């Protein structure tokens, strides 16, 4: 019976290292192309959300809800 072929671990780690470096280069290249590509869009002026006024009685809260009290929380508006 013949012995199975085994790749020395030094070769395997070199292959994985090259793959990691290629992946990092690909991510960097994609980021650079995205930054300098023709698809750049100018940021729009910041618009502040209006306060919730009226129609919120059904929310079962003891006090009125303000945007400040909702900051940092996940809010779903339908």
TL;DR?
By secondary structure, the chain is mainly α. It has helices spanning 9-36, 67-70.
End-to-end gap: 70 Å
Quantity of strands, as a count: 0
Main sheet characteristics: none
Content of β-strand: under 5%
Mean pLDDT: 74
Counting copies of identical and different chains, the oligomeric state is single chain
Provide the helix percentage: 40-55%
- Counted by DSSP, the helix tally is 2
Rough outline: elongated
Radius of gyration from the CA trace?
28 Å
Characterization of this structure:
- The protein contains 2 helices and no strands.
- By secondary structure, the protein is mainly alpha-helical.
- The chain has a domain of 32 residues.
- It is elongated and about 80 Å long.
- The relative contact order is 0.06.
- The model has no long low-confidence stretch (mean pLDDT 74).
């Amino acid at each position: 019976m013949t012995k199975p072929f085994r790749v020395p671990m030094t070769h395997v780690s070199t292959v994985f290292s090259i793959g990691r470096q290629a992946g990092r280069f690909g991510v960097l290249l994609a980021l650079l192309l995205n930054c300098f590509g023709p698809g750049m869009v100018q940021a729009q002026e910041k618009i502040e959300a209006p306060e919730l006024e009226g129609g919120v009685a059904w929310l079962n809260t003891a006090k009125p809800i303000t945007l400040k009290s909702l900051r940092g929380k996940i809010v779903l508006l339908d």
